[in-house]
Known about the structure:
mainly alpha
Amino acid sequence: MTETIARAESSTRVRRAPRSWSDIAFGVWGVLVMLFLFAPIIVIVIYSFNTGRLLVSWNGFGFEGFLAILEKPAIQNAVRVSVITAFISATIATALGTLAGIAMARYPGKWVWWFLGLLLLVSVTPEIVDAVALLPFFVWLGQDVGLAMFNDGIVRLSVGSSLFATAVVSYIVRARLIGMDANLEEASSDLYAKPVTTFRRITLALAMPAVLAGFLLAFTLSLDNTIVAAFVQVSGTTPWPVYVLSAVRSGLRPEIAAVSTIMLLLTLVALALVALVLKRAGDSATQIARTMTGG
Length: 295
């Protein structure tokens, strides 16, 4: 009894111990970093409710910027193109990245490190390099080879945006499967299941949370692929980032901020769905962070 009381008093003293100056300094530094990262986003969200003619001139609070989206076909078309290409790009990236991630996780060897190096090269290559390379490549395929589909703006934007997203999905799927035992797949083979059946019912089922997470992340990443989109677009299929870039010359209007706010909300919803899918699959917070970053 005496020991219990002593431990309780000791824990109380520990809880009431004053914070050190280093803890306070790191706390303040963390707040400053968060403000540095999110202050511009907060500003653009606030100014999306601006009733002024230009974004930088605050006239009052209102919803005119959001209502203008319904009145301007050019904005609607740009958003529509971005959403369609992001969906197609995410589908391509998910299909290719899932197969690559499963192969790296289930068939280890020296080739995996070479392949990871290539994926890393795709991830760190400046977008301007990809854009300059893709433009003549699409022109060659569409005009010289005669593949008319590559003259279509949606196809160009979808393929161009899927490059980086494919690498991201590959990392995520590999990270999901690399820590899982392959006993279930081996047991399925021992029970004379066909390889296709084992892949569909066991391997793909185990990887499905990461596949869904990869799809959602690929979708959000494809929404803002500005540099590649600016190079490979064709007339009539201008995506939203390129529309905003061209609008800078005449002055940003509140409707630009309004659409940006909506896309921000879509991105946050997508990330929340990723975390929810992984959490329902039984992952801890650390595992969720590890899967989403491909670690």
